[in-house]
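Task 17 of the worksheet. Students: predict the tertiary structure of the chain below and write it out as structure tokens. Keep your answer in the requested format; marks are given for formatting as well as content.
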Amino acid sequence: MLRIIYTTAAILFCYLFFLGASSGPTGIAGDRTGSPLSGGLCNACHASPGSFTPQTVITLRDSNNVQITNGMYIPGNSYTLTVAISSPSANNITPQYGMQAVILKEDNAQAGILNNPTTGLSGTGLDARIYNYSLRSYLEHTQRSVDGVFNATWLAPVKGSGTVTVYAIGQAVNANSAFTGDNFDTTSFTLSEDLSVGVNTVQNDIPGYHVFPSPAVNGKFFIDGINGEAVVRIYDLTGSLIYNKIINFESGIKEIITDSPKGVFFVNVWQNGKQSSRQLIFL
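Model answer:
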């Protein structure tokens, strides 16, 4: 009787996972990327190996669309992450694709920020999302992809973060509404911090950048003089990072609301290879 119950429960889980995977796998099964945090891989419910022979490839490109081949990242810079899955057809069936990816530091904490998920070579598809799970962000599919290309913007972590690794799993499926015939491939891409890029190589300052009022009350202040997307980070006097977000600035003044404690802090803005810091007091 117990065997029947366990078998039924396993089938029910996989059925729910199969349904949930069409809108993203992380919320159903957690980390399946093959990272040190993974509780398993996609074969838990896709009954791999199937007939397909997928290959998963990770690439990173800088803001000039140049592919990173030296295995190094520059702290605070923005990159385009692409996870591409491909497979030959099998049994006269052309595969469709799903995936999951995460970027971790050596202590398995989140490395940088993932944002702006897209699909397709043109980067205009909408069948991907960033899913926050267990204090980490995952790039994942929301619908099966025909071309198997998934993209996101990756803002590299702050200086001193050390080596980071991109973990990704790609799944080729036959879309037969069953658990058979599919297959997966895992890969990883490790990047060392480029220590040759120091403060002297960063262009300071961003002209016209203002932070006010100081003192600020209840964690609320304003930034003026920034146009477009930029990274806002707030550090305390010990250098600890207490705020880290990508913000899309429109023309005019932008209100920032934080839960910062009282004290003296530094507001740092990164944009297009430039950075600026301003002191700010919170009351």
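Marker's comment: The CA atoms of residues 18 and 165 lie 28 Å apart. Residues 2-20, 198-203 have pLDDT under 50 and may be disordered.
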